């Protein structure tokens, strides 16, 4: 099976629409951080990078009479649930290994508690890496969602991650 690269994912129109909505620079930065953490904590870096890159693909907009309604957004947010499903569908369509697609979807689902029932739960090492990578990239007032880098720089960093992954030789664990 041909490996689905990060660039295959990046260029897809669904990713351009939804990942760009929540911040392409944030997504790429979290993917880089997930790679570093995965190497440190002995987690499959390919799953960590893909989940890190796609973790906020479930974001959507809450407008009330043309105004951004942050209170409604906070109260009704299900972006990890929506993101897990959206990323899973996309990855399977691109030809991703189905077990890998499931693990990535789970890591997206658990990247934040915002849509989960309250109470304790234990994240797997992969889920923890993606959660930590996102936390490390957060800025006050949600500024991380508005960071911008130009398209050339985006592609350069995506290719750099693909290059790093191709050298780690850990694909889907199979
Ligand atoms: Fe998020
Ligand atoms: Fe995020």
Topology:
Blueprint: H1 6-11, H2 13-22, H3 24-40, H4 45-54, E1 63-64, E2 67-68, H5 70-76, H6 79-94, H7 98-109, H8 125-137, H9 151-168
Antiparallel strand pairs: 1-2
Helix pairs in contact: 2-3, 3-4, 3-8, 3-9, 4-7, 4-8, 6-7, 7-8
In words, what does this structure look like?
With 174 residues, the protein is an all-alpha fold. It has a single domain, classed as Hypothetical protein af1432. The protein is 63% helix and 2% strand. It contains nine helices and two strands; from the N terminus they run H-H-H-H-E-E-H-H-H-H-H. The protein has a two-stranded antiparallel sheet. Strand 1 and strand 2 form a beta hairpin. The structure holds fe (ii) ion (2 copies). Residues 26, 55-56, 134 line the site of one fe (ii) ion.
Assembly status:
single chain
Helix count equals: 9
- Order of helical and strand elements: HHHHEEHHHHH
Count of extended strands: 2
Q: What percent of residues are in strands?
A: under 5%
Judging from the principal axes of the Cα atoms, what is the shape?
globular
Assign the structural class, choosing from mainly alpha, mainly beta, alpha/beta, alpha+beta, or little secondary structure. Answer: mainly alpha
According to CATH, what is the topology?
Hypothetical protein af1432
- Strand order across the largest sheet: 1-2
Domain count, please report it.
1
Which small molecules are bound?
Answer: fe (ii) ion
